[in-house]
Amino acid sequence: MAIFWRLWATASATMAIAILILVGLTLIQFGNLQRTLLAERVAVLARNTAAPFEATTGLGFPLSSVRNAAALLERARQSDAAIAAIHLVDREGRVLRQVGDASTDIHALDWPEGWRSRPANLFDGDRFYSFNPIAGPGAGAPGAVIVSMDASNSVIRIWAIGAELAVAAMVFLAAGAGIIGFILRRAFSAEIAAFDAVEADIEGFERDSWRGPDAAGSEPGGELRQVLNEAYGGYRRAVGDLAAEGRPD
Questions:
Q1: Distance CA 54, CA 213 (A)
Q2: Could you report the per-residue pLDDT of 28-87, keeping only the tens digit for each?
Q3: Is 82 helix (H, G, I), strand (E, B) or coil?
Q4: Pick from 46, 65, 231, 235: CA 20 to 30 A from residue 106's CA?
């Protein structure tokens, strides 16, 4: 049965590796999908939040002149419970208005390049930051709206789907290993039996090669031992015949 267990272990290990790769790729794809959906969700909110400020800057007024800036930001924050904070910053990155979680320090982040000219996203732990520049009358943006959202729900979803995939993978692996064992046992029964017989003869020969004939006069070691003894006996007889032919009369 040794050859059977080797074949079964090899086939099962190959299937396990294939399942592991499939689960890993699926989990990566799901995580990327979660990030994309979250980015699109926050981007729409950030654009809507920046629209009232663009109406002011389009007339040539600075962002600091918007008196109800805090109210506009707060209304946008209350539109989604996952939003932790919203910041209004000028072109130099200085915070003009902030609503929400006061502990959110956006200056401690590694801001993405080009945030003044195009929307940009940033993941930092369980937080997602969306940078949306505010259009002005000139070429450069006078500032930007930065939306900070709690991404822990997305992380929890990724871990949850990972756990489900792991359980499903173990079930498929157990079922597949059983099916593989059944197929190997049925398809290679003759070959496995022949290999086991040869292996048993070799083991018997190695175990009993130091023994002599037993009380009944039979040689131990199985068929392999008998074949070797016959070959050795034939060799001895051939040597004897050659020696007899070489003697002078």
A1: 105
A2: 898 888 888 888 888 888 888 888 888 877 777 778 778 788 888 888 888 877 888 888
A3: coil
A4: 65
**Distance between CA atoms of residues 153 and 151, nearest Å:** 5
Beta bridge partners of 95: 89
Q: Which two tokens stand for residue 18?
A: 């294939």
Contacts of residue 59, defined as CB under 8 A and 6 or more positions apart, other chains included, come to 137
Segment holding 149, helix H or strand E: strand 143-150
127, β-bridge pairs? 124, 150
Cα R_g (the chain), whole angstroms: 40
* Tokens linked to 229: 């003894």
List beta partners, residue 229: none
Answer yes or no: CATH 3.40.630.10 is held by domain 2-158. Answer: no
Question: What is the DSSP track for 1-60?
Answer: -HHHHHHHHHHHHHHHHHHHHHHHHHHHHHHHHHHHHHHHHHHHHHHHHHHHHHHHHTTT
Alpha helices (H) in the chain, listed in sequence order: 2-57, 69-77, 152-187, 189-208, 222-245
CA–CA separation, 234 and 132 (whole Å)? 95
- The CATH 3.30.450.20 portion of the chain extends over 2-158
Residue with the two structure tokens 């392999």 = 224
| CA 137 and chain centroid, separation | 48
Cα–Cα dist 63/136, whole Å: 10
Distance between terminal CA atoms of the chain?
Answer: 59
CA 148 to CA 82: how far, in whole Å? Answer: 9
**Angle at alpha carbon of residue 49, lines to 47 and 53, rounded to 5°:** 100
